[in-house]
Amino acid sequence: MIDEQQLTTLFPSFEQPLVKQMAEKAEIREIPSGELLLKTGQNIRSTTIVTKGLVKIFREDEEGASSLCTIWDLARPAHCR
Question: How far apart are CA 34 and CA 36, in angstroms?
């Protein structure tokens, strides 16, 4: 369980019922640099919300080769490299 105040601080625009539900079910994890969050074709069973760091988005072609699509810098809101 996560503290509701912590969630309200992170997501001030979220309505209280959503914050309460997230507090009951969410977990905070620290993801090491370079670890994959999702793979192409992976079934998604939960929502991941990244609150700090860099997120690199890659695109795979038909042969499975990947190329960097964009980088989100979460230290600088609304900033993509």
Answer: 6
**Token pair listed for 5:** 């105040």
What confidence tens digit (pLDDT) does each residue in 8-49 have?
Answer: 988 899 999 999 999 998 888 888 988 988 888 889 888 888
Cα 5 from chain centre: 19
How far is the CA of 81 from the CAs of 1, 23, 46, 50, 73, in angstroms? Answer: 34, 32, 27, 17, 7
Within 1-81, where are the H helices?
4-10, 16-25
Tally of residues, the chain: 81
Residue 65 tokens read as 């080769």
Residues in CB range of 2: below 8 A, 6 or more apart: 22, 23, 26, 27, 28
pTM to 2 decimal places: 0.59
Are 58 and 68 contacting, i.e. CB atoms less than 8 angstroms apart? yes
